[in-house]
């Protein structure tokens, strides 16, 4: 993959996506070993710079770096000089002075990772910027879909919930369209806006309107941290109208995949029996996250091609 950074999927080609997914498929084997480590990125330094809370993304990037033998350093907003008033650019300049090879960044402001990528020579991976994009999540989602469905060309993926404020949804929209999938969006009008429709993307407003056609149903949580209070329905109302429970799932194909990027609000967007049911591939998404992030570190940093060493 001939690029310095991964900031989003809007401009990533089908061939690049396939290369990432194929590389991730190879790296999955490393996580099944008794000693889960290869020397692929020995001597490389990876910095995770997170200004928002994270469990799955941060831990999987940390594990990805460790399993490739890279040296990893984590910086959070709560323990950095940002708490003392330091600007983001000054923080980045200080990190750059210590010669990292790659910085993984999560920030509440859309475009923050792009600013670092433009101004510094180290590689940058966007781990989520505001309501803009979360490309690595979409890539692991597509790898999970591909495992079960094969080629995504012509498949139908329904994304349900707070679509407008979801960076996961936005990256999936870009990636799935590039891979030839059809995307159905459903959610409340304030969270699933008509302007999101486009080639290969349809906007509807009821979950029942997408279930019967879907090969995949991806449920999203309400982005409460990004919504004015007046826009928020009660949890009970939301669960009744947009949550996925066993009764609603029965209207879908018996082969449909149920996905969620996490964290799950059980009893709101997903009932426990669906979240843990036989159609759920949520834990597979988490497992695939490590492999996808290993693949990206490998491809961006040009590691040794011997993943089995």
Brief descriptors of the model:
309 residues, alpha/beta, globular, 9 strands, 2 domains, Rossmann fold, 5-stranded parallel sheet
Describe the model.
The strands form 2 sheets. The chain has a 5-stranded parallel beta sheet. Helix 2 links the parallel strand 1 and strand 2. With 309 residues, the chain is an alpha/beta fold. Helix 2 packs across helix 11 and helix 5 crosses helix 6. The radius of gyration is 19 Å and the shape is globular. The model has no long low-confidence stretch (mean pLDDT 93). The chain folds into 2 domains: 136 residues, Rossmann fold; 147 residues, 3-Layer(aba) Sandwich (Rossmann fold), CATH 3.40.50.
Short description:
This protein is of the alpha/beta class and 309 residues long. The protein is 36% helix and 15% strand. The model has no long low-confidence stretch (mean pLDDT 93).
Outline: globular
CATH superfamily of the largest domain: Aspartate/ornithine carbamoyltransferase
Strand order in the sheet with the most strands: 7-6-5-8-9
Supply the CATH class of the largest domain: Alpha Beta
Total number of helical segments? 11
What's the topology here?
Blueprint: H1 14-27, E1 45-50, H2 56-67, E2 71-76, H3 88-97, E3 102-107, H4 112-119, E4 123-129, H5 135-149, E5 156-160, H6 167-178, E6 182-186, E7 201-204, H7 208-211, E8 216-219, H8 235-242, H9 246-249, E9 257-259, H10 272-275, H11 282-301
Parallel strand pairs: 1-2, 1-3, 3-4, 5-6, 5-8, 6-7, 8-9
Helix pairs in contact: 1-5, 1-11, 2-11, 5-6, 5-11
């Amino acid at each position: 993959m001939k690029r310095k950074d991964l900031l989003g999927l809007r401009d990533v080609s089908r061939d690049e996506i396939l290369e990432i997914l194929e590389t991730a498929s190879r790296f999955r084997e490393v996580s099944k070993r008794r000693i889960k480590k290869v020397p692929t990125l020995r001597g490389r330094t990876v910095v995770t710079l997170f200004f928002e809370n994270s469990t799955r993304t941060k831990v999987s990037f940390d594990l990805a770096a460790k399993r490739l033998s890279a040296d990893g350093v984590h910086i959070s907003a709560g323990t950095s000089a940002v708490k003392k008033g330091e600007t983001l650019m000054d923080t980045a300049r200080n990190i750059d002075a210590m010669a990292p090879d790659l910085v993984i960044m999560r920030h509440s402001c859309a475009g923050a990772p792009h600013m670092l990528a433009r101004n510094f020579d180290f590689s940058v991976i966007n781990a989520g910027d505001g309501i803009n994009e979360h490309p690595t999540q979409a890539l692991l989602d597509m790898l999970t879909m591909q495992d079960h469905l094969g080629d995504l060309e012509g498949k139908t993926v329904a994304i349900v919930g707070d679509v407008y404020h979801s960076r996961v949804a936005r990256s999936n929209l870009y990636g799935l369209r590039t891979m030839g999938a059809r995307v159905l969006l459903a959610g409340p009008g304030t969270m699933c806006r008509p302007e999101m429709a486009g080639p290969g993307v349809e906007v509807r407003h009821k979950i029942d309107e997408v279930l019967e056609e879907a090969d995949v149903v991806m449920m999203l949580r309400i982005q409460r941290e990004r919504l004015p209070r007046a826009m928020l329905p009660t949890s009970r109302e939301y669960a009744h109208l947009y949550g996925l429970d066993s009764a609603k799932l029965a209207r879908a194909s018996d082969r449909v995949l149920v996905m969620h990027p996490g964290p799950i609000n059980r009893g709101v967007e997903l009932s426990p029996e669906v979240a843990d049911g036989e159609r759920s591939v949520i834990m597979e998404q988490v497992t695939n996250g490590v492999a996808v992030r290993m693949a990206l570190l490998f491809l961006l940093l040009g590691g040794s091609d011997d993943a089995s060493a």
